[in-house]
């Protein structure tokens, strides 16, 4: 009798262990077979800006192609639609919902707690929620390099697109800490090279108004600027038209824009949003994104100047060497660049 009881108990334990094993195996297999879903909400101006939004979309397409994930992109007609789309995407079961619009910070802080199983990401601003990853680019560092290069070029009489004045300029989409961090870094970089450099500043109050961008750029060029830094998204298309018409230089932003007006775009301050998007998707896939509430990306991690394919031959080697020297000094902390977004 005792033997039968022992046998019965052992049989039950064996069946229980087999069942648990199958359950665990099934769970692992389900995890391996899962197709992750990633959505991106564009910032003001939407796709077609050949800058910030398009860079993010390039990353999204890489996520689909290289990681096999399902993707979706949403272009709000207005920043105020952020809450609507963030909520809809979370309800639709997207595992990672990224917004490129820093103006969505407040609504994201409200929406994220309602969907604890959804991972959200926002760029250029910090949202302190357990299921939000904030990605901060150190644009002020890359802009310091852009300003240093602009200062060296504007005083070089051997370059035919410059004049005899120590004047450069910048045009932002809106006046805000997120845009001013570019402009302040740019000015600090220029004055690091030559304290007498004058930096003109303007704001278009739009990221999608090329006509306004051209108007502002022409005014700055008439005031002596021969290098115009555009930090205005799609508005920058008009800035590029202006520098082409006047045969001076522009500096592109966010992605490599040098090809748009070859020879007239001195360089571009790239922050590789495409790489950041892929990085987030990889962290989603390997399960480490839940431990990443804040990611900062500076000169060491992808905030950099473009290769200057169309203008490098115009530049003296000493300028390129100086840029490398400055980059190293920023990276090791010897040069501190002001980040006004943290003030």
UniProtKB/TrEMBL annotation:
<feature type="signal peptide">
    <location>
        <begin position="1"/>
        <end position="24"/>
    </location>
</feature>
<feature type="coiled-coil region">
    <location>
        <begin position="316"/>
        <end position="343"/>
    </location>
</feature>
<keyword id="KW-0449">Lipoprotein</keyword>
<keyword id="KW-0732">Signal</keyword>
<keyword id="KW-1003">Cell membrane</keyword>
<protein>
    <submittedName>
        <fullName>BMP family ABC transporter substrate-binding protein</fullName>
    </submittedName>
</protein>
<dbReference type="GO" id="GO:0005886">
    <property type="term" value="C:plasma membrane"/>
</dbReference>
<keyword id="KW-0472">Membrane</keyword>
<feature type="domain" description="ABC transporter substrate-binding protein PnrA-like">
    <location>
        <begin position="37"/>
        <end position="339"/>
    </location>
</feature>
<comment type="similarity">
    <text>Belongs to the BMP lipoprotein family.</text>
</comment>
<dbReference type="InterPro" id="IPR028082">
    <property type="entry name" value="Peripla_BP_I"/>
</dbReference>
<dbReference type="InterPro" id="IPR003760">
    <property type="entry name" value="PnrA-like"/>
</dbReference>
<dbReference type="InterPro" id="IPR050957">
    <property type="entry name" value="BMP_lipoprotein"/>
</dbReference>
<dbReference type="Pfam" id="PF02608">
    <property type="entry name" value="Bmp"/>
</dbReference>
<keyword id="KW-0175">Coiled coil</keyword>
């Amino acid at each position: 009798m005792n033997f039968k009881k022992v046998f019965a108990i052992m049989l039950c334990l064996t069946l229980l262990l087999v069942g648990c094993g199958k359950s665990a195996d099934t769970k692992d297999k389900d995890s391996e077979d899962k197709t992750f879903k990633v959505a991106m909400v564009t910032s003001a101006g939407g796709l077609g800006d050949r800058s910030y939004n398009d860079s993010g979309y390039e990353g999204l397409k890489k996520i689909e192609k290289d990681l096999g994930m399902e993707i979706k992109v949403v272009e709000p007609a207005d920043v105020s639609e952020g809450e609507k789309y963030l909520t809809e995407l979370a309800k639709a079961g997207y595992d990672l919902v990224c917004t490129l619009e820093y103006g969505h910070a407040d609504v994201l802080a409200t929406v994220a707690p309602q969907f604890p199983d959804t991972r959200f990401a926002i760029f250029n601003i910090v949202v302190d929620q357990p299921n939000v990853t904030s990605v901060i680019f150190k644009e002020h560092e890359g802009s310091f390099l852009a300003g240093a290069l602009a200062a060296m070029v504007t005083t070089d009489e051997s370059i035919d697109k410059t004049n005899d004045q120590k004047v450069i300029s910048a045009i932002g989409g809106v006046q805000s800490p997120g845009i001013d961090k570019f402009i302040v870094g740019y000015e600090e970089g220029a004055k690091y090279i030559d304290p007498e450099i004058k930096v003109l500043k303007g704001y278009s109050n739009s990221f999608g108004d090329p006509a306004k961008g051209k108007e502002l750029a022409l005014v700055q060029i008439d005031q002596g600027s021969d290098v115009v830094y555009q930090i205005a998204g799609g508005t920058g298309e008009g800035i590029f038209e202006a520098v082409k018409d006047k045969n001076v230089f522009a500096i592109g932003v966010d992605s490599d824009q040098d090809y748009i007006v070859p020879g007239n775009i001195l360089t571009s301050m790239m922050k590789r949003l495409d790489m950041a998007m892929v990085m987030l998707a990889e962290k989603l896939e390997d399960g480490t994104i839940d431990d990443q509430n804040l990611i900062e990306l500076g000169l060491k991690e992808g905030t950099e100047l473009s290769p200057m394919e169309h203008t490098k031959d115009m530049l003296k080697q000493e300028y390129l060497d100086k840029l490398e020297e400055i980059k190293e000094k920023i990276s090791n902390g010897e040069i501190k660049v002001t980040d006004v977004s943290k003030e």
